Amino acid sequence: MTGHMGNDMTVDTTSAPRHGRMPRHGALRSYLKLAASVIAVLAVSAAGVAAYAAFDLVGSLDSSLELENEEMLDAVPDIGAMEGGLTFLLVGSDKRPESGAFGDPEEESGELNDVTMLLHISQDHSHVEVVSFPRDMLVPVPECPDPEDPEGEPLSAMSEVKLNSVLSHGGFGCVASTIKQLTGVMIPTGGIVQFDGVAALATAVGGVEVCLAEPIVDDYAGLHLDAGTHSISGYDALAFLRSRHGVGNGSDLGRISNQQIFLASLMRTVQADGTLEDPVKLYSIAKAVTSNMQLTSALQDPARLISIAKALQDVDLSKVAFIQYPTAYTEDFSAVVPVESAELVNAALQADLPVQLDPAASDNAELGTVADPAAPPPADGAPSESTETAAPTTPVESLPPDVPGQRGDEVRCSTANDG
């Protein structure tokens, strides 16, 4: 578990290599592994930036987080696609950057996990699930180490707590323990991304194309986009991901659907553009990640990051499922709670099974998306569910219509909040 939250959670946004510094404690292993990675990168790239890139990435690494299950990654190779599967917890913090671009970092000093996602890459790399957990979902929180005093008395377990309060309560490790308890899935690695990190990643891939069914105006997030298709990057991308008041029904559930539109498009972009086969582009993404994210210590090795990225290189986009953890509102509509279908999502993750989303699950326009009217229909006139053509012996978890989401190959458009 980590106790390095609070003042240690600074994000290094510089891009220049660091010279004249001794390696930080624990970084020697990364330096030794990078010797092999530099040779491999040079072998597949004529770009003279390869050697600089590898060592520059080491200089970008921020102080690491720690999770109790990290030893599961000891067998991940340094070069080439990783062997086996991976489960990664991504936390999006609303902590304001020092630049003041999103408010005074001193006055608005709260640190909530407004985004909590679980990325699961299957053992055979044949399918991927990305599960988004609503920020206002009431969850039980297990006993966690105190970030202010990791060796002292742990923080007491709690019940009926909003998920987005767990980061400020017990740090990243406590969020991981909470999601592990909720889903029954081991979480060996993960990271925290803040405002600037999202903008940097969208820029690193050259922009992400998103579709808007209607004009969206959200003064709170700073999003003002006309209907149609837009390629967004930088702070426009961040505003798109942050927008809640401008999309769907104005709730966090609509924002999650918006984020799934972005992530599905991002994955289509990196596959179509050959990003995962281009060492220079791959370096740009890795640089954006290591410079703007606080990662668990198992990912403090750029070669390992690249091996994980390569595992996604050939995944069939129709077998990438973006899932909104199924919930229902409480009686006073102040929060949401998991529903029975959540156990089906948990079971699929635990058993490493692909899922089949019900097409009707995304028909609710209140959730913030509609099918792209310009998208061509499937060739046979039927839904192009990859699991429909799977071998009969291939087990698949079919999810009911109260589990919203979309496939990676599916183009959907954001709807505006009329309220």
From TrEMBL:
Residues covered by region (Disordered): 1-22, 366-419
TM spans (from-to): 31-55
Regions of compositional bias (Polar residues) in chain numbering: 384-396
Keywords: Membrane, Transmembrane, Transmembrane helix
Cell envelope-related transcriptional attenuator domain: residues covered: 113-271
Positions in coiled-coil regions: none
Record InterPro entries: LytR/CpsA/Psr_CW_biosynth (IPR050922), LytR_CpsA_psr (IPR004474)
Family of this protein: Belongs to the LytR/CpsA/Psr (LCP) family.
PANTHER family cross-referenced by the UniProt entry: POLYISOPRENYL-TEICHOIC ACID--PEPTIDOGLYCAN TEICHOIC ACID TRANSFERASE TAGU
NCBIfam families: lytR_cpsA_psr
Record's protein name: LCP family protein required for cell wall assembly
Species in which this protein is naturally found: Agromyces ramosus
